[in-house]
Each structure stands twice: as structure tokens, then as C-alpha cells.
Amino acid sequence: MSREILSLANAATQKLRAYDPGHDLPALRTEYGARLIELGSNETSLGASPAVAAAITAALPDIYRYPDPKGGALKRALAAQLGVETAQIALGNGSHELLMLIAQCFADAQSSVVYSQYGFAVFAIGTAAAGAQAICVPALPADHAAAPLGHDLAALAAAVRPDTRLLFVANPNNPTGTWFDDAALDEFLGRLPDHVVVVVDEAYAEYVTAPGASSAVRLLRGGGRRNLIVTRTFSKAHALAGLRVGYAVGSAEAIAVLERLRESFNVNSLGLVAAEAALADTAHAARIREHTAAEREWLAARLRERGLRVFPSQTNFLLVDFGRDAREIEEKLFRHAVVVRPMAGYGLPNCLRISVGLRSESERLLEALA
Ligand SMILES: *Cc1c(COP(=O)(O)O)cnc(C)c1O
């Protein structure tokens, strides 16, 4: 007697679908070579600091050993830069892993998790994997002046129920690019009951220059709020997406909870030294920030000249509304070897998300659009 293997999976897994990676990029790289323009994954075309390659080369002879399970050196460097204690930091195999871990630690089938419509996709996946009930709160309207389709903080706070254990926000958010400032975050946190752990996903924090907007890490200095966790990553502004290093900052108590379930060697030895080297090269980081801000505004202006709606962004990508189903446009760009990210999966079929690349890459994109 045979039985569908899926029927043996737990209830949460049965409801999940495998991640859809989109186009087969390795195959496309083989096919197109240097002609391929990759603007679909919010990577940084400037590349990582040269110090990273040197650090990896120096660490290669020791790859037969397990990595430092505590990531002590990287945590000390992060703690010094962020102004927190090392006990307030957990490291992850990318911040994606940490978001999943947080959901696994704090949510279960008896609880609910609150996040925004158009919020980062992993919030929904982590919630589903934990078997928790998702409370997806409508986003701000598309004609909102400051944050179109962004998080409605008042509605998110109002959606919290007695069984809510987690609330995810992303600041700035992917895929909308929208953000909120410190005053808005403070007011929002003041409205939340203490049975809710608030996660502020700051994958793009390094890019933020808007007045009054800084990192929620400021609330974690000197011990900090017990139920606030901030996640950050080396994938975006530090250009290390391929090495998978992220971190969470919280109260020492909250981080200790994550440590109970964290895989002992979740960050590999090359990722650890690479992240340390990237963090130390503040000049390269500044170059990436400045280049991205300037090229983002240049590209946004060119797209707006074409009559397209470009959402405000404090990140290294732009959400662009084409005013009609964008699938055909995405396919045509693809035939010109320009890869961007369709947004139908997020419920935004008229939009494409486009990474801010080098000027030459943006020009290729604009030519292909023409
Ligand atoms: C890219 C991204 C992450 C995950 O990045 P990792 O590579 O897993 O560190 C997390 N949150 C948001 C909003 C992102 O866009």
C-alpha cells in the first residue's frame, strides 16, 4: 500500500510551496556571458571590498576545520561598530535564516504573526513554517505621499491579538523600497503590548539617508528593549550575498532564546572572515552607498521621463509601475539579456523590481526598454 509522501509531512509543511528562484541564472551566464545584465536580486554590482578576497585566501588552509561556532571575532567587530554587547548579537546564514529561526523560536500553531501586505516574502514563509496563523495587514494606499504601498504602522499595531507573538516589519521594505522614520517607529513600538516580539528587518539600513530615519539598533544600546530584534545582512550594502552572512541584534535575553535553536556552525569560516573584512573597509562601504544613491536617482529620473511610475526608495532597487501587466515587458527585457524581478508573486502584476547597477547596466536596461 503506497501513500503520498507529502501526506507524511507535518501540517505546516504540507501548506508550503518550494521557493521559486525565477530564471536559471547559472545557465543564462553560460549562454550570454558578459552580455547578461543581472538586475533582479538587489545585489551590488560594485562588488565586495578587495580586502575580502585577501581574507578568504588567508583562511583557505583552515577550511578542513569547523568554523568558530560563536563567530567571536565578527561579533566583537559588529558590537564595536553598533555600540552594543557581543551577547546582543546572533549570526545567521544570511538574515533569511535568522528570520526563519525567529519565527521557529517565538511562533507556533497556537499563535499568530502580524506583517504587512507587500512585506518581505520571508515573513510569510517563516510564519507558515512555524504553523502559526498569519495576519497580513493591508498596506498604505498606492497614492500615499510618503510611503505608497508601505507599512501602515497604526494598522499593524491595531491588528495585534492576545495570541500574537511576533510582528515583522522591514525598514526599508523589499519590494516597495518604502521606509519610516525614528519618530514613527518609536510611536509604533509604544503601542505594542509586551507579549509581542517585534522584528525590524533592516537589510537595506546602510542605504538610508532620509532625514530623521536611522537604525532601530539605537534602541538596543545599554541593554535595550526586551522584545525588539533587528536583523541586518552582509548581502546588500556589503556585497557578500554569495557567502550568506546576516546578524540579529536584540536584548541579550532575546538573543539567548535564538541561540537555543541556532545550528552550531550556521556561518561558515570563509563567510566569517569575509564579513569581518567587509565591515572593516569603511571606505569601500561608503563608495557603495554613494554610488547607489547617485545611480538610483539617475535611473529613477530616466524612468520617470518615460512616463513610468517609480516608487520612492531608500534602497539599492526601484519598484517601477508600468501601468499595465508587466509580464510581457519582463519577458522582452529578458530576451535582451536584462534580468529584472517580476512582482506578480507579490500581488503587483503591473510592477517590476529593478536593482540599481552600474551606469552601463542601467543604460542597457533603458535601451532594452526603448
Ligand atoms: C535580501 C533581504 C533579506 C535577506 O538577505 P540575506 O541574504 O538572507 O541576508 C532580508 N530582508 C530583506 C527585506 C531583504 O530584501
Please, could you describe this protein's structure?
The chain has 370 residues and is α/β, with parallel strands linked by helices. The protein has 2 domains: 11-48 and 283-369, Alpha-Beta Complex (Aspartate Aminotransferase, domain 1); 50-281, 3-Layer(aba) Sandwich (Aspartate Aminotransferase, domain 2), CATH 3.40.640.10. It is built from 13 helices and 13 strands. It has helices spanning 11-14, 25-32, 50-59, 72-82, 94-106, 121-129, 153-158, 182-190, 252-261, 269-280, 282-305, 327-335, 359-369, and strands at 37-38, 89-92, 112-116, 133-137, 164-170, 197-201, 228-233, 246-250, 309-310, 317-321, 338-339, 341-342, 351-355. The strands form 3 sheets. A 7-stranded mixed β-sheet has the order 2-8-7-6-5-3-4, with helices on both faces. A 4-stranded antiparallel β-sheet has the order 9-10-13-12, with helices on one face. A two-stranded parallel sheet has the order 1-11. Helix 6 (121-129) links the parallel strand 3 (112-116) and strand 4. The termini are far apart. The model has no long low-confidence stretch (mean pLDDT 96). It binds pyridoxal-5'-phosphate (PLP). Pyridoxal-5'-phosphate binds at residues 42, 94-96, 120, 170, 174, 201, 203, 233, 235-236, 241, 246. Residues 42, 94-96, 120, 170, 174, 201, 203, 233, 235-236, 241, 246 line the site of pyridoxal-5'-phosphate.
